[in-house]
Design a protein that fits this description.
Layout: H1 13-57, H2 60-67, H3 73-96, H4 99-129, H5 134-153, H6 160-171, E1 178-184, H7 198-213, E2 218-222, E3 225-229, E4 236-244, E5 250-252, E6 261-263, H8 265-278, H9 282-297, H10 303-315, H11 328-340, E7 347-349, E8 356-358, H12 364-379, H13 384-394, E9 430-437, E10 444-445, H14 446-451, E11 461-469, E12 476-482, H15 486-490, E13 495-500, E14 506-510, E15 515-525, E16 528-539
Parallel strand pairs: 1-4
Antiparallel strand pairs: 2-3, 3-4, 4-5, 5-6, 7-8, 9-10, 9-11, 11-14, 12-13, 12-15, 15-16
Helix pairs in contact: 1-3, 1-4, 1-5, 1-6, 2-3, 4-5, 9-10, 11-12, 12-13
């Protein structure tokens, strides 16, 4: 990669391999404790909800009025005693099973492991670039191993369920996505990469040098970085070659730009750390939640824009500086209100560096929808419907709570989720619409009908098409047609499977029965979902005909 005069010292491949494996274990441990914290907090919410409900029901006047309808004093007395016993049992359970405290403990361990994880990323970058000697690398490795042992010493036990969720999140939901690192280039080679082709050539040179060292690894150039994906685990690196400037900033190549661009990551990292410390790590938690929201709802937002918006949110309120997990629902609600009320603008000034961060697509409409779902979920706290509302906001990372009616339902839940088939990392934009047709009538677009308040009736032809897509070909389209409502359940016609296009870029359907149906489209490129869109298809009546359609 580098000329002999700028060559880095010989690197111990076994040291780097060991550090990388240790990093992978820490990532899994960190994510497992995060998932265990979520599980415990969900149990705490259910515990409190049931206790409140039983306490209300056990009210003497209410219970006497309801059970008294039986007309039997013995049964009334027995029911009253039974419910009082349940209240006592639940009250004792809250003292024995302290799920909220356990959730906070797991969050504390996860926060400590997060610091270790980030330090491992820096160590890997320093070893790969030659910034550290082998001896310095071993010393730093030993320090991180001790920090890891210290975190584990006070860690409560985790469950297999938490590990399975962590595994699913890392392997399928991209909860540990690209790890960014700057590869500092020797200043002596800078003049060799001036001119129009210099930016592309330096990226290809870094790619080729990495391929020599990592022969069985997927490595490719992507605009301004070299993406590295190791086959031995699920973690991916984005290596950004750059020349360091005297003021601590970096010049980096961008194949889509006219010249080299400037980045100031040190200022951004410092601002992130300051805000994260000030908010008791809530900045990191909210940034992670926001990334889950953007991937679940197809919002084309870069990581720096997300971090900047989260930073700006905490800059205008101190309500959540010391908040625990019990306030995350309110924090999410207020954050989406903050987002939906943002004026439309082309760019923001990045946290710390104050450089321009361009807005790729307007996020306000979907933030407004998320805000409304948060209000509904908070109002439904303790009910199964609350989890469904939260899942609409944050995707499959929110587990669905099972109700007693699930075992007795008469229809099959056949819905599939794209996260179970492909990693999701939304970085592009796609829009879909539906052309509604009927013999003897002029075709019209579903979006225009809804804006005009025109109801969609049964017995219409439905042609779902991509109206715009920022993803460069080649790519693959996947679709989901989900029927909802009592009629869909009665017919056992929920559908919801992930399917291919009926023909290139098009999905053909037919309106059949009443319900608030949904169609989703996914753009898959290089095995990753990079864009997605969804359109609601509310059908107002039921056809007298019978067909396996919407």
């Amino acid at each position: 990669m580098t000329p002999e005069s700028d060559a880095v010292p010989d690197r111990d491949p076994y040291l780097l391999a060991q550090v990388r494996e240790a990093f992978g274990r820490v990532v899994y441990s960190h994510k497992t404790h995060e998932k265990q914290a979520d599980i415990c907090f969900t149990k705490h919410r259910w515990q409190q909800g049931v206790l409140i409900a039983l306490t209300a029901i056990s009210s003497g006047t209410f219970l006497a009025a309801v059970v008294g309808l039986l007309g039997n004093a013995v049964l009334t007395s027995l029911a009253t005693s039974s419910i009082a016993l349940l209240v006592s049992w639940m009250s004792l359970g809250t003292k024995t099973f302290k799920f909220e405290e356990e959730s906070e403990a797991h969050h504390g361990v996860a926060s400590r492991l997060w610091d270790v994880r980030e330090s491992y990323i820096s160590l890997i970058a320093d070893l790969m670039s030659g910034a550290l000697s082998n001896e310095e690398g071993r010393e730093r490795r030993d320090e991180l191993q001790q920090a890891t042992r210290d975190a584990y010493a006070d860690a409560p036990r985790t469950s297999n369920r938490a590990f399975e969720r962590a595994q699913g999140g890392l392997q399928n939901n991209e909860e540990m996505t690209f790890l960014d690192m700057i590869f500092i280039l020797p200043p002596g080679i800078r003049s060799s990469y001036e001119g129009d082709t210099g930016r592309r050539r330096i990226l290809e040179r870094v790619r080729d040098d990495l391929k020599v060292r990592y022969k069985n690894t997927e490595i490719r150039v992507d605009q301004c970085v070299v993406r590295v994906r190791f086959k031995s685990n699920t973690f991916k690196f984005e290596v950004q070659p750059a020349f360091e400037n005297a003021d601590g900033s970096f010049d980096y190549p961008d194949t889509n730009a006219e010249g080299w661009k400037v980045t100031k990551p040190r200022e951004e990292i410092a601002a992130t750390k300051e805000c994260n410390d000030r908010t008791s790590t809530n900045m990191r938690h909210l940034a992670r939640m926001t990334r889950a929201w953007k991937n679940a709802n197809g919002i084309n937002m870069g990581g720096l824009l997300i971090d900047t918006l989260v930073y700006n949110f905490f800059d205008q309120t101190d309500d959540y500086d010391t908040a625990g997990t019990g306030s995350f629902d309110l924090m999410a609600r207020d954050f989406f209100k903050f987002l939906k009320d943002q004026p439309e603008q082309e760019y923001y000034l990045a946290l710390g560096s104050r450089q321009r961060v361009h807005v790729k697509a307007q996020f306000q409409p979907k933030a407004k929808k998320a805000y409304n779902r948060c209000l509904e979920a908070i109002a439904d706290e303790g009910k199964t419907s609350a989890n469904k509302k939260w899942r609409e906001v944050f995707g499959t990372s929110v587990p669905l709570a099972k109700s007693a009616s699930d075992s007795s339902r008469s229809f099959r839940d056949t819905e599939e989720f794209i996260e179970d088939e492909f990693p999701v990392d939304v970085s592009e934009t796609v829009s879909i619409d539906c052309e509604v047709t009927q013999a003897g009538w002029r075709p019209t677009w579903l979006s225009a009908m809804r804006r005009g308040g025109i109801l969609l009736k049964a017995d219409k032809g439905l042609r779902f098409v991509v109206t715009s897509c920022s993803v460069r070909e080649p790519y693959t389209l996947k679709w989901k047609v989900l029927n909802r409502g009592p009629e869909a359940e009665r017919r056992d016609a929920i559908r919801g499977q992930i399917v291919d296009s009926s023909k290139r870029g098009v999905r053909i359907e037919h309106s059949d029965f009443k319900g608030e149906h949904v169609v989703e489209c996914y753009v898959v490129k290089d095995g990753v979902v990079v864009a997605r869109d969804r359109i609601d298809v509310p059908i107002d009546n039921t056809s007298v005909k019978r067909a396996k359609t919407l």
